Amino acid sequence: MLKKTAFYDMHVKNNGKIVEFAGFLMPIQFEGIISEHETVRTSVGVFDVSHMGEIEIRGKERVAFTNYITTNDASKLALNQIQYTTMLYPDAGIVDDLLVYNFKNRIFLVVNASNTKKDYTWITDNKKGDVQIVNRSDEIGELAIQGPKAEPVMQKLFDFDLSELKFYWATETRMNPASLNRGGMKDIPVILSRTGYTGEDGFELYIDGKYAEPVWEMVFKAGREFGIKPIGLGARDTLRFEMRYCLYGNDIDKTTNPLEAGLGWIVKFDKGDFIGKTSLSKIKEAGLKRKLVGFEVVDKGIPRPHQEIFNNDSKIGSVTSGTFSPSLKKGIGLGYVALPYNKEGTRITARGKEPMSAEVIKGPFYKHGSRK
User: Fold this and answer.
1) Which amino acids are annotated as binding site, given as ranges?
2) In the chain, N or C: fewer CB atoms in 10 Å?
3) Binding residues for substrate
4) What residues does substrate bind to (predicted)?
5) How much is the pTM?
């Protein structure tokens, strides 16, 4: 049985094109991927990301246990701070990439939708110490409000200065329906965070699913003057791709490790033991043989997953993700290539139906987002 998020009816009312995604019925687009992409880059858009998984870890040893199952150092998190991290298998393959929220009485993990069941099983199978693990994914609805106008929109819904909520921080607070003349409704409890997957400024609202309709209405009323629009999964993917954010299942998975994926910055070898540390240390010591690179097509063509990558006549790797960039108006791609072909400026060829000449670049493809 395919699941519906708490906002499903709103997608239907807004003529969303519904597709199956990670076991859910989700909108792939509304008015069109490119126009939705441009809305987020220039103003503000709303994504339903309720398909993402939420797993809570409670108990006295919740931070120590989180440190054991993840690569980053959760012990460094202040109250209400957020951290990007990965979970590894013993051989250093990636179980998932995820966010860790440090709240007063619990650790709150946000995991990829397609991995929720697998992640929950992995976490419970590796349980140690005084912890309780709860999968709350089916109870929670989540909206992501993204774009350079996200803050003035969201400010209308809260009674404190949102400029004080910094990037990768969260707060447990309440939305104020009275601010938008919704008489008779009590304040709605929410987790409000400031992260994002687009390169633009933005916020996330985690709510009890029973509040879905009024929350949706409040957000869109608050954003009306800025031309706020619902955004589908299609534009979410092109936006994240332009920022060169990894997508689990394409760019990272159980066959890749965080060092070769360019995620070494979220691996803290000096924090103590964690699952996968021994294998990852050996990989680091032996030296990497390949790296994930971003590349731009210099003529025509759009790279696609599994296409082979060549340097002259030598096969050096394969494409993991590829798309047309609405912002750059060209094909862009990610792929693993043998060293030393990961160096900026290296000319490569992705071979699809027609060979595509491309050049390796450093950093994100799109460099002008409102979230610096």
Assistant:
1) 204
2) N
3) 204
4) 204
5) 0.96
